[in-house]
Design a protein that fits this description.
The complex is a heterotrimer of chains A (286), B (235) and C (265).
Chain A lengths: L19 H9 L6 E5 L3 E7 L13 E5 L2 E7 L1 H22 L5 H14 L11 E9 L2 E7 L5 E4 L1 E4 L3 H15 L4 H13 L4 H7 L8 E7 L2 E5 L2 H14 L41
Antiparallel strand pairs in A: 1-2, 1-8, 2-9, 3-4, 4-5, 5-6, 6-7, 9-10
Helix pairs in contact in A: 4-5, 5-7
Chain B lengths: L30 E6 L4 E6 L2 E3 L2 E4 L5 E5 L2 E7 L1 H22 L5 H13 L8 E8 L5 E6 L5 E4 L1 E5 L2 H11 L17 H18 L6 E8 L2 E8 L4
Antiparallel strand pairs in B: 1-2, 1-10, 2-11, 3-4, 5-6, 6-7, 7-8, 8-9, 11-12
Helix pairs in contact in B: 3-4
Chain C lengths: L33 H4 L14 E3 L2 E6 L2 E7 L2 E3 L2 E4 L5 E5 L2 E8 H21 L7 H17 L6 E8 L5 E6 L5 E3 L2 E4 L2 H11 L9 H18 L6 E8 L3 E8 L14
Antiparallel strand pairs in C: 1-4, 1-7, 2-3, 2-11, 3-12, 4-5, 6-7, 7-8, 8-9, 9-10, 12-13
The chains are: A alpha+beta (286), B alpha+beta (235), C alpha+beta (265).
Subcellular location (chain A): Cytoplasm; Nucleus
Protein name (chain A): Proteasome subunit alpha type
Keywords (chain A): Cytoplasm, Hydrolase, Nucleus, Proteasome
């Protein structure tokens, strides 16, 4: 049953220096639907695609408000995300209670990363099986952070995670330089375009008429704008605006999906190693 | 038990030092008036923060906006006020997260009572009046004693001049013991509520040294909270 | 549980030798700090008076910053014991703290604050504490102590500017009572300096830097003349968006020539 002999525990190294269990956890992110985060000078925006897990059920919540200045979108095991969001909420709340101000985003993420790291170093724990995109605003401006189950976190300009996020990533990479000087409306539209490009072509066609049926949820946070998940009306407003703005922008699907590019075996395949993956838009690349 | 014999040391005696037993409480003064109407509620509080004969600040709001429909007025021991409102704000945000909706005025009223009773044997030394719109959009005023007794009313005065102001409200808002037929009593409009609240503060500032400087008036309607400020005696 | 205070746990959250593991996960009840738990045979009585004390602190806000001043005396009862001790501190590039009351308690809370500033620096993310945050934190700490009937006998002035350069000036006392204003004072300054400054306040605008410095000079002079627990030497902290530093010590301009005409005692 084992895919290889070095993945029996989180704490077991492979001879290549990899932690297979941790990598499997990272792969769990790709089981969730796609979500996109991006920012301009004053706002950070999260756009999430929520698809019901079955015909009979409602779609899962993808966006979770944490505090007035911060919210997250998730991809992976929702139950784990709930635990993490509870932690983030109580941290923010107790910070606000002591200091009457918002928890600086970078420090919150550092604390979260430290909490998540312990699960990757103990045999009696398992890593959190959920990837997070965090949109926050503090005195240093808007922030988009990506957090992986491996407890790596990245400060990003734009990022996308979840199933078929490769196409959204392509869109973000292509438009990266435009984001910083965008208006609030434009940055939301960019987010919608990015997420739409991650939809399968047939779904895109069949559901394009009813914009609301896209099951896209949007949240925004920024200057003088507490974290807000847009309501149905605003959603349709922006979906229509995005449609008008750039039908041309919808790119054709790339050939390969990234759904399972992690290698199950232990063959040395440096090209598929997860670690340096965030070439898209981290702040370090700016 | 007393192997260390610590208790045998005399108290520190320093010549000239003033020895006062520590009291955790202090009265910092201030008054609140709240008047509920059919679809609005008015709550007012003065802005003087004092202790004894000194005025610390002439511009300290004692009205705390807890939600778009709820305002809490709190006076008494100012450090307890700060602590209590801080705690209630935290609890309200937790409620908002778990239930995905803002806490209603009635729910805040009930929670405030419980939070205060939790400190039954070391009470928050505060006089609280909570004003807001209830579930039906009607004006609601709740008043509290320091250990959490909660009562809904249509009008209420509290704080250092509470006893001075309540009879005025009984007369002007409650129309107590007036031999006028009901149709001749002026109806309670928003303007009349604001006018009566302002007048009570102007009167209180004449007689209560802990009430004065200025009065902040919050008018809560379904459209939001309107704030007004009126200057009072500063002596 | 048996109280074998010499045996340390074998690992953190683990059992002490001869004890059972208590299965609390990471949520083992943390012990209160020692100063909050030392119990005598009939309960605990904490200190009920300040011993070495600093007198007034005066803070004034002006357009673009704040000034905080205090004389350099720390008294021991009526004895002018330590005459060259600064009571206005620079906390970081945004915050000034002026302390009055029990000086040992001031030093204790100052150590705590300094440790927090070091933690701020360790994050190395360019975020530093703002005066409003420090004032809020102080209310929580001091309120906690007073609620345990073990107060820190202090009355502090917190001043500074926030990240936008907006000035902040506030006062926190030993009970955790806090407020902000354009002028705050502690000790005798509350009776002598406050009225003096309030009288000069223009209705429609803030003080200028010039006016604020003159008022500080004036206040410190009056305080020296009338407060017996004061000396004619003081330091002034200034905090603006551009600069945060302690100036001085300055001397009060004394003039006692009127003394020989005073009769009747």
């Amino acid at each position: 049953m084992f895919r290889n002999q070095y993945d029996s525990d989180v704490t077991v190294w492979s001879p290549q220096g990899r932690l297979h269990q941790v990598e499997y956890a990272v792969a769990a992110v790709k089981l969730g639907t796609a979500t996109v985060g991006l920012k301009n000078r004053d706002y950070a925006v999260l756009v999430a695609l929520s698809k019901p897990p079955s015909e009979l059920s409602a779609s899962q919540r993808k966006l979770i408000p944490i505090d007035d200045h911060l919210g997250i979108s998730i991809a992976g095991i929702t139950a784990d995300a709930r635990v993490l969001s509870k932690y983030l909420r109580s941290e923010c709340l107790s910070y606000k209670h002591s200091y009457e101000s918002a928890f600086p985003v970078s420090r919150l993420i550092t604390n979260l990363g430290n909490k998540m790291q312990t699960t990757t170093q103990r045999y009696d724990r398992r890593p959190y099986g959920v990837g997070l995109l965090i949109a926050g605003y503090d005195e240093k401006g808007p922030h988009i952070y990506q957090v992986e189950p491996s407890a790596n976190f990245f400060n990003c300009v734009a990022m996308t995670i979840g199933s078929r996020s490769q196409s959204a990533r392509t869109y973000l990479e292509r438009n990266l330089s435009d984001f910083i000087n965008c208006s609030k409306d434009e940055i939301i539209c960019h987010g919608i375009h990015a997420i739409r490009s991650s939809l399968p072509n047939d779904e895109l066609l069949s559901k394009d008429e009813g914009a609301s049926q896209l099951n896209i949820t949007i949240a925004i946070v920024g200057k003088d704008q507490p974290f807000k998940i847009l309501n149905e009306e605003e959603n349709i407003f922006y979906l229509n605006m995005a449609k008008k703005r750039g039908a041309s922008n919808i790119i054709s699907k790339p050939e390969g999906d990234d759904d399972d590019n992690s290698s199950p075996g232990d063959e040395p395949e440096p090209s598929t190693r997860r670690d340096p993956l965030v070439a898209v838009a981290t702040m370090e690349n700016q | 038990m007393n192997c260390l014999g610590v208790e045998q040391f005399p108290d520190y005696k320093v010549p000239g030092v003033q020895h006062v037993d520590f009291s955790p409480y202090e009265s910092n003064g201030g008054s609140i008036v709240a008047i509920a109407g059919e679809d609005f509620v008015v709550i007012a509080a003065d802005t003087r923060l004092s202790s004894g004969y000194s005025i610390h600040s002439r511009d300290q709001s004692k009205l705390f906006k807890m939600s778009p429909k709820t305002v809490l007025g709190s006076t008494g021991c100012w450090c307890d006020t700060l602590s209590l409102t801080g705690l209630v704000k935290v609890r309200m945000q937790m409620y908002e997260h778990t239930h995905m909706k803002t806490m209603s005025t009635d729910a805040v009223a009930q929670m405030l009572s419980i939070v205060m009773y939790n400190r039954r044997f070391f009470p928050y030394y505060v006089s609280n009046i909570l004003a807001g719109l209830d579930k039906d959009g009607k004006g609601a005023v709740y008043s509290y004693d320091p250990i959490g007794h909660c009562e809904r009313a249509t009008y209420r005065a509290g704080g250092t001049a509470g006893a001075l102001l309540q009879p005025v409200l009984d007369n002007q808002i409650g129309y107590k013991n007036q031999n006028l037929p009901a149709d001749q009593l002026p109806p309670l409009t928003k303007e009349r509520a604001v006018a009566v609240a302002s007048d009570t503060f102007i009167s209180a500032a004449e007689r209560d040294i802990y009430t004065g400087d200025s009065v902040l008036i919050n008018i809560i309607t379904k459209d939001g909270v309107e704030e007004r400020k009126l200057q009072l005696r500063k002596d | 549980m048996m109280n074998n205070s010499f045996a340390q746990p074998m690992w953190s959250n683990g059992p002490s030798p001869g004890q059972f593991y208590n299965f609390m996960g990471g949520n083992a009840p943390t012990q209160l700090p020692r100063e909050l738990t030392t119990a005598g045979p009939f309960g605990t009585k904490h200190s009920t008076a300040a011993i070495t004390t600093g007198s007034s602190v005066v803070g004034i806000k002006f357009d673009g910053g704040v000034l905080v001043a205090a004389d350099t005396l720390v008294s021991y009862g009526s004895l002018a014991r330590y005459q060259d001790i600064q009571r206005v501190f620079k906390i970081n590039n945004n915050i000034l703290l002026g302390g009055s009351g029990d000086f040992a308690d001031i030093q204790s809370i100052k150590r705590n604050i300094d440790q927090k500033m070091i933690e701020d620096q360790c994050y190395n993310d360019g975020v530093i504490m703002k005066p409003g945050e420090l004032a809020s934190w102080l209310t929580r700490v001091l309120y906690n102590r007073r609620s345990r009937m073990n107060p820190l006998y202090i009355d502090v002035v917190v001043g500074g500017v926030d990240e936008t350069g907006k000035p902040f000036l506030g006062n926190v006392d030993m009970r955790g009572r806090a407020y902000n204003d354009y002028v705050v004072a502690t000790g005798f300054g509350r009776h002598l300096a406050l009225p003096l400054v309030r009288e000069r306040k223009p209705k429609d605008r803030d003080f200028t830097f010039e006016e604020a410095t003159n008022l500080i000079r004036e206040s410190m002079k009056v305080l020296y003349y009338r407060d017996t627990r004061s000396i004619p030497q003081y330091t002034v902290g200034i905090c603006t968006a551009a600069d945060c530093s302690i100036k001085g010590p300055f001397k009060v301009e004394e003039n006692w020539t009127f003394a020989e005409t005073v009769k009747g005692y």
